[in-house]
């Protein structure tokens, strides 16, 4: 009976996963949240019973759960439609970086039906060239669903890479490779990566590869992998600071140079487009206009309203960036040299997000994997609480509930403190 219980739990998890993905709308907050609680409870139960699984079973079932979402049209995010929009522009001979969708639709340059699904028609594309290459491949199909499935195939391949590589890295750090289950069956991972097609999956894969090769002594391969992670999302560039005390100054400079050069090479196509203007414009707007699920910034914004009488994001946003950068550098300089690389990366990421003005649920998934490698549980908790930021969507728009945000960050902060105290008591300090 004990052996069959895991299969029953997996079957129910699969059924609920299909229900929440294919049959639930984002604005159905109560139904969405209830199903997510059920998914997460099943995930924790299976993680608790991970000794009942072989590692091959965890990997196989992880792939199967992702395969269930193969033909899904994302129900929680419209980002994939911008991916396809950009891809189709390239096929039309139009520079996807040069025009906002709203400019092109006025000229009737592309499909109005696809345009109607975009969530950012008045912003220039900000996706790096390596992402655009995948968009280009998906854009060859006239049918939107075929394009979505094409992108999902690439995402599932990257997911497969993580499922294979993460246990190897866990073994390198003398951890139980079956801790993979916290990633393989995690509902946020399933919904946001395979389901909603966010490219953090490529960041996670290349970061795992970078850590794996670094600890095997293959510094050049590690730097190449780090550079590829940066190529998909610029944010991982902050993690270069995490290597500082792991190498001599000369080797650190060489490592960072190789990683940055790889990223620069991937951005070479920008030289042949109008990308710079659009990206600078959109990046500026990101730091000075966008705000979602922030922590420290929301406190500063509240003070700003009291002192200035208006939203001070235009000045506070860039200031938060400066403070974040300073805090990350200070942490990596002052942290003990014996602190393991995944843990250094985890805290560096965490500092970045605490100062960020926008923290979408899928942003935190690299922290989940780094937490698994460091045996911290707070990223697992965060992967649960952050999902409830979806509460507030309606048919006509979105209204953020700051009470939910407060509960999310208070519970996260409290659990971080709890774990640090426990580690201190166990004489582990800040490193596992």
UniProtKB/TrEMBL annotation:
Keyword Ribonucleoprotein carried by entry: no
Species, as recorded: Marivirga sericea
Membrane listed as a keyword: yes
Molecular function (Gene Ontology), one example: hexosyltransferase activity
TM annotation in the entry: 7-24, 30-46, 58-76, 144-167, 179-212, 224-244, 251-272, 278-300, 312-335, 347-371, 378-395, 401-421
Source taxon at top rank: Bacteria
This protein's GO CC annotations: plasma membrane
Name of the protein this chain belongs to: Mannosyltransferase related to Gpi18
Keyword entries, A-Z: Membrane, Transmembrane, Transmembrane helix
């Amino acid at each position: 009976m004990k052996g069959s219980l895991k299969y029953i739990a997996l079957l129910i998890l699969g059924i609920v996963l299909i229900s929440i993905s294919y049959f639930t709308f984002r604005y159905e907050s109560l139904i969405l949240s209830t199903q997510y609680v059920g998914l997460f409870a099943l995930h924790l139960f299976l993680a608790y019973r991970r000794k009942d699984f072989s590692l091959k079973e965890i990997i196989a079932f992880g792939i199967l759960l992702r395969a269930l979402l193969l033909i899904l049209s994302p129900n929680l995010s419209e980002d994939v439609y911008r991916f396809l929009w950009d891809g189709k522009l390239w096929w039309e001979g139009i520079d996807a970086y040069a025009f906002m969708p709203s400019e092109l639709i006025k000229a009737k340059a592309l499909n109005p039906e696809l345009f109607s699904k975009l969530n950012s028609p008045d912003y220039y594309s900000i996706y790096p060239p390596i992402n655009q290459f995948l968009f280009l491949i998906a854009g060859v199909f006239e049918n939107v669903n075929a394009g979505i499935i094409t992108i999902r195939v690439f995402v599932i391949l990257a997911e497969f890479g993580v499922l294979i590589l993460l246990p190897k890295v866990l073994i390198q750090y003398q951890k139980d490779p079956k801790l993979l289950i916290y990633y393989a069956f995690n509902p946020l991972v399933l919904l946001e990566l395979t389901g909603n097609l966010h490219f953090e999956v490529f960041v996670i894969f290349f970061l795992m590869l970078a850590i794996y090769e670094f600890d095997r002594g293959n510094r050049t391969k590690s730097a190449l992998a780090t550079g590829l992670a940066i190529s998909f999302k610029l944010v991982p560039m902050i993690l270069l600071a995490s290597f500082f005390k792991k190498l001599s100054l000369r080797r650190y400079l060489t490592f960072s140079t190789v990683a940055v050069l790889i990223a620069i090479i991937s951005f070479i196509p920008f030289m042949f487009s109008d990308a710079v203007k659009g990206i600078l414009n959109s990046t500026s707007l990101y730091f000075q206009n966008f705000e979602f699920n922030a922590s420290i910034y929301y406190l500063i914004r509240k003070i700003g309203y009291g002192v200035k009488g208006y939203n001070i994001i235009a000045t506070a946003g860039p200031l938060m960036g400066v403070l974040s950068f300073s805090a990350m550098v200070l942490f990596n300089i002052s942290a003990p040299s014996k602190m393991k690389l995944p843990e250094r990366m985890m805290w560096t990421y965490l500092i970045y997000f605490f100062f960020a003005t926008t923290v979408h649920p899928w942003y935190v998934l690299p922290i989940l994997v780094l937490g698994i490698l460091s045996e911290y549980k707070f990223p697992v908790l965060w992967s649960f609480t952050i999902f409830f930021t979806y509460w507030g969507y309606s048919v006509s728009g979105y209204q953020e509930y700051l009470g939910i945000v407060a509960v999310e960050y208070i519970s996260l902060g409290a659990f971080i403190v709890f774990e640090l105290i426990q580690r201190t008591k166990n004489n582990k300090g800040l490193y596992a």
